[in-house]
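Issue 218. Parser rejects a valid record. Input:
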Amino acid sequence: MPPLHGTPADPSSADDVHWIEVPINRSFSDGDKSTWRTDPKYGRPSDSLYREKLAKMWLQKRDEYEPGENYILDSLPEGYVLLDRPRPKNPEIRDKYLWGHPSGAVFNSPNRFFPHFYYLMTGGTTQCPCDLCTNQSKKMLSFKAKEGAGGQGGSKARGRAHATSRVPVDPEGTPDVFKMAVLKLKEKGTLDEAITEPASMDWRAERKKLWVHLVKLNMQNSFIPRAGELVLWTPSMEGELVFDEENVCFRMYSYKDKKFLGIPDWRAGTVGQTPEEPVVLEDLVQTKKKTWAVNYSGFRVETFPDPNSDDKSYSLHYKYVHLNCIRPLNYWQLFLHGIPEDKLHPSIKYALTVMSSFSLLDKYRFKGTWPNASIYCRGIYIGAELLIVGDTVRIKPPGYNPDHPVEVTDVMVIKNIRFGLINCVDDPNLLAEKHVVRIEGKVYTLSRERAYRAPGMAEPAQPLTDEEVVNAFEYVGMRGYGNWYYLHPPEANMEISQDMVIGRCYEPDAMRLIFDDTSLGLDLDGVLSGRDYSRRTDERIPPGKHWFWGDYRTQSLALDSLNGEDVGKYSEARDPKMWRANLKVIDGTATPADVRDARLPRDIGRPIAGKKESSFAEVGKTSKLVSSGLGAAESTNVSSADEGPAENETSDDEEEGGKGDETDSSNGLGFLQEVPYFRGGTEETEGGDYVPGNERKPAKRQKQGK
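Output the parser choked on:
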């Protein structure tokens, strides 16, 4: 391999990062520029991510990689280029593919390209093991076999293939259930069916746990941060966070010493894990005594990196903290007041950059009447927060003008979250001409003047009774905000876009503890100014557009890792083709090719005739050592999120044009997509369960105070 050379930072990364340039072997390349797309819709983005990943994998393959160093190829192999194009389902997102393979097919990630890259770097002296070359060889063998069978047989084979209708698939080859639903809707005129993706490992792995997770969210207090949310956090909190009237800012206060201690070291972060131990209201100001150490009783928060950069090293800065060290990002203007802008941690501006992003969680039903349809969801991430069905959200006042602020008085209890498809099209690359998000539910107000009064009713509107308040809200103590009134007829629902949502409505007791104020609009200016900042700085939002729509949460946040694991296309363990083959094996529908693609561990060689059943398996039942050895050969991949069976879900709404929901077929759902769930810590984390390498005893949970 040519020698390495030091080089200044790559333009895609931070200026202070030193890169080591890795020259490629230019003696051999099969890249074909004639396969490059010249259509104007194709762009040519930076290929630095490919060059970084390939350099790392190449050096690791040669045992020359040194941890802590930053490597990048000097260029891609001759004839290869990275192009992007608008995503068919959402043209605002541009998908990147590597072109140049002689077959005309494309690579969709550095991991998929690396086998072919290594084949080129070794001079092409062996058969290339990459998927594209393997498929090309199979097609050539199949074509020769047809030629050998005679012209008539070959003609029949071609005729049958032409008559076979192809199932729409996404870029990873997984059946595109949403495109299939649109085609079925056009054929039948009306459609109302559950969304299932039996050929998607992401979807199947998420069913049970996601359902349990959503049920838990419905049962817990709304002020508790949720996994995947963005928050303000500080590594430590000395004393309690109190508003300093004299300096007009939030500062830490010691009641023991009766003095202010200073402003917390605020930064923005992503909630990666939530506590296994119950969180109580008092934890907002002072952590109550916990049974377990902080890595079980606290939140794992990772500092948020720059969404516009390939450098995600800030994600490695994480800590387990209790609730008193965390505050909602929506209220950033209040908590950061008094801190000079040049003193703010960089992660805060990075987090504000994605405030105008959203992603849908768990799309479970497709419903519509041609040409319109809807995809129903159980949750939606808007900016910093996750909202789910049953949540109470605060609504921006109609016609709000920052120069003439008005009081926030209205809230909605979410009944449905749907992704609307307006004017569906019978096109292999598009779902519809227009896409909209609609949040539906009953709306209540604190304003007696704006309250609903039945026609002919002269007397003032009457507030909801205590029983009606309990039935209207899933939160406890909502009467603490004051008298509630219907804004519309009691039986009517209202629809709003995501732009009208301010954020979750917290319990009044929590608002008093945090702010000593129960006003519904304390964060209105912060949310709106954050979205405006996002629209000016998020490079993923096209000119003239106001929102970035991500297929799943980590894509909306532009994260390549969470909880210490690579996610989405950045995961080296991601192999949709192998996963689909494994699912077919599980379902009993596998062909010999599927069994091969599944890469199942099998015995080597031919079984010995007449061999008696071995007693080794019986030994394994009693021997912990043998059982562990046998178990090592089994797959132990941890899934991300699960959810209950979508087939049993029905919609009790009456829709006029069709409403539905949507699920990502292969990219997974929401923040839980491809995020393994594990607990623990290292010698660097507080209260972790790290065990030195020379010890063999399993780590035990630590109890505080013992």
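Fixed in the parser; the record now loads. Residues 1-15, 146-165, 611-703 have pLDDT under 50 and may be disordered.
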